[in-house]
Amino acid sequence: MKKTTRRQTLLYASFVLCLAFYATSAPAGDCLADCMRAHNCWNVTGGMSQTYCSGTLTNCQMNCRQSSQKSYGAIAYSAKDKGCGWSFGWNSQSKAEQVALDNCSKRGSQCKGIVWFSNSCGAVASDGDIVTWGQASAKRTAEQSALEKCIKAGGKKCAVEISQCSRK
Question: Are residues 20 and 55 in the same domain?
Answer without folding.
Answer: yes
